[in-house]
Structures are given as C-alpha cells and as structure tokens.
Amino acid sequence: xxxxxxxxxxxxxxxxxxxxxxxxxxxxxxxxxxxxxxxxxxxxxxxxxxxxxxxxxxxxxxxxxxxxxxxxxxxxxxxxxxxxxxxxxxxxxxxxxxxxxxxxxxxxxxxxxxxxxxxxxxxxxxxxxxxxxxxxxxxxxxxxxxxxxxxxxxxxxxxxxxxxxxxxxxxxxxxxxxxxxxxxxxxxxxxxxxxxxxxxxxxxxxxxxxxxxxxxxxxxxxxxxxxxxxxxxxxxxxxxxxxxxxxxxxxxxxxxxxxxxxxxxxxxxxxxxxxxxxxxxxxxxxxxxxxxxxxxxxxxxxxxxxxxxxxxxxxxxxxxxxxxxxxxxxxxxxxxxxxxxxxxxxxxxxxxxxxxxxxxxxxxxxxxxxxxxxxxxxxxxxxxxxxxxxxxxxxxxxxxxxxxxxxxxxxxxxxxxxxxxxxxxxxxxxxxxxxxxxxxxxxxxxxxxxxxxxxxxxxxxxxxxxxxxxxxxxxxxxxxxxxxxxxxxxxxxxxxxxxxxxxxxxxxxxxxxxxxxxxxxxxxxxxxxxxxxxxxxx
Length: 538
Known about the structure:
FN3_dom; about 550 residues; Ig_sub; Myosin-binding protein H; 2 helices; Immunoglobulin-like; repeat; 36 strands; immunoglobulin domain; 6-stranded antiparallel sheet
C-alpha cells in the first residue's frame, strides 16, 4: 500500500548512492503488470511526468512481496521523509534507467522532496579562447558568363582574423542538388576567379569562403543560380568613315576593303547586291569574328553598284550599304562643228559623249592645230559648256580643232575632230605705225648729289658717295689733293645707275685731305669735292 500510495501520488524517491547528481527522468514510471487488477485504477496519462523508479531497484510482480530498499549511506536531511519500500521487479524485465538530462518538476501533484546534498565539484580549468574565423567575402558578383565558364569577382572580408587570410575557396552546386564541390584545389588570394569546363545550359549555385588557420568563414552565396550560356552582344557594323560615301576606283584597280563589326557569338555575315548573292568568281569575301574583307583583284565597270552587308545573330541583325563606283575615261564628244569664222575668231559647237565613263563630265578641253606646223596646242581648258569661241588666231593661217571630254578619271582617250578647217583671211588694209618724234637725249654731266665732308677713325674703312647724270655716260675720275687716284689697292671706285662710290680701306691720318669726283663726257665735264678728316684712336 505504501508503494501504491507513493506511485499514485507521484512522490519523489531519494537519490541513490551511485548517482548523486541524477534527477528524476521526464518520462513517467512504466506501469507494472497487474497494476489495474490490484488497484482497480488506471495509470496516469503519459503527458504528466511521473517519478521514476530508483536506479538498480527491481519492480515487484503480482503476487510477490515487496522487498525493502537498502538504506542510503548518507543520512537524509531532517525534512526529508523516510525511505519507502519499493517492490522488486521480476527478473526478466529490466528496470528503467533515468536519463542524464534534468527534467523540471511536474506542474501538477505534490511538491517533490528536496534533493540530497551534493559534494562540491572541482572548478574547471579556464580554456584559451579560440581564434575567430574570418568574416564572409563581400560583394560577390558575376563579371562574365561564356558558353562553358563563369567569372566571379568579390571583395575581401572586413575581418581576416589574427592569423591572417590564407585564401578563398570557390564552391559550386548544380540547381536542384545539395552537393557542393570545390572548384579550386587550393586556396588563392585573388578576388577574381573563372570557373572552367561547365556544361552549356546548366544552372549552378556559387558560393565563396574565406579560409584562414582558424577556420573557414560563412560562405558568400549568389542569390540566384547562374545560367551557363554565352551572353549575346547585339550585332553592329562599324563602317569606316571613307566608306560612308561613294567608294570610287578606276577600271583595273584592286578593291580591298575591311569593314569591322561586333557581336557575340560570332555573327553570320551576308553580302548581297540587288538582293542577289555575290559572284564569287570575281569577288572574294573573308570573314573573321570581328571584321569582313571585300576584295576584287581587277575592278570592272560591272562591279559598280550598291552592296548590302548584313550581320545577323539569332534574328537580330544590323545592315549597311556600300556604294562602289568603278570609273574609266569618257568617250569623245559628238557632232563637233565649225559654226562660224570671222576676223581672228572661230565658233565651235558639239554634244556630250555617249559614254561618260561612269562619272560626271567635269568639262571639255579644246585644242587647235596650225596647218603649217601640224602641232596641237591647248586653246581652252575645263570648258563647262558645249560651245566656245576661239580668238587670237593668226591671219593667213589655216586651223583644225579637236575637243576632249574630261571626268574624274581624266581626259577621254579619243577626241572629236572638226571635219573642215578654218582659214583666217588677210585684209587689204595696211598697218601704218604711228610716227613718234625723236628726242635729243644728249646731256653734259651734272651731279645731282654732291660729296659731303666726313670724319672717320683710323683703321675703320669709310665710303664717299655722289650721284651724276649725263648722256653719253660720263667717265668718272677720283682725285686726292688734285692728284688722280690710279690703281691703288687702298681705294676701290665703283659706279652703278649713276651712283659713284669710293671706298678707302683702313685709312690713317695721312689719307686725310680733299677728295674730288670728276665726270667727263663729249658734251662737257663737272666735278664735286669734299674734305676727309682721319682721327687717331683714343
């Protein structure tokens, strides 16, 4: 009855000697067999915790006498009730073992008796604080995605720890899977990494960890999976400036043009002329990933026209038109005629050439030929009209005329020649020149600019100047102190356009005196003089 009262009331049993720190388990005591038959009551519900049987005590079976529990080695506290005898469990049923976790006391039922006093536990030895791992990498982004690779960039973590950063580890996981695999074998310090050898069309999740001696950081993960496919770059033609206008070449010249474009993946390049494919027997096309080359070895007139270039990627395209004009010299003018001849003049008329050489006619060149000499001379250039008048012809001569057409390529190879000739007739009027009265130009010498007195320094050359007129040209005589200066290397006399000069080279005081210039011709003579003073050096 005592065991049944305690079992029904949920009273706690004292702790056993072998487990001083154990507490009552959370699970209720298992119901012994025949419990309902003995008491006429049912066991309490499983939700309410019940006291567990002490450790190593048997549970009694129906029909057996309960065996007294062994006395505790330590005396209980004064307020602790005496130990209650517990029935022994049958030999074939193991006793429940209380768990190590502490369970709170049940909310309902009488309060549990206080636990037995425990021995004080030894104070634990303080452990050294472990180094913290680095923080997560920052700003993880996708820089570029190609057909089989993806390039990532990120920033270094804010905290790298005391031991410093060893590097980064990049891990990938396919979309729908949880298996993360490292993309790099060893940590690296760069904040940019390209993951290679990926399958086109795959979706992968990517994360990056910072690694140090104290461990790995919390990974930085991309928010969305990355689709491995090449990012398309819209096609665009970059037409060179000189090809935006009409591209002009001469017949027989080579045509070699390179037109760059952009687009990713490699665009499809299509050349057409008048919505028709090109003649590959004459035109060579070479395409690369960045440009297309248009080449003709020898251009012909038939190669002229508008060529269409289309660069296409999966329906997106860019178009450009290239205008090529192959020119050659024009044909000769037509229907050249002599319209009229009068005095020293001839009037001509003609019509434009049938073939302009695939270029606009810039003008016409008119040439004349004298019957006596037979040589052709240009009389008029770049005449823009189809008629002209040739003047200043010589009386009595007979002339023929021809006309060339001119375009951007040059003059026509052949010329239109007049069928008839133009004869400039002589007139009966005789030319009488005007009589001019003869004027007597004879004049005796006369000095228009006399000599002037001069003072010079010893050792410095000096010049004497005067001007004279007269016809016939007078003879000039230089004198010093009324003595004629003859061939003396110290003096140099010159006359030019009536200006007389005398150079005295490095004079000394003995070269001073009166110098006279005398002019003489058949009609008379004239003279002028001056004084030269030579001072010594100070």
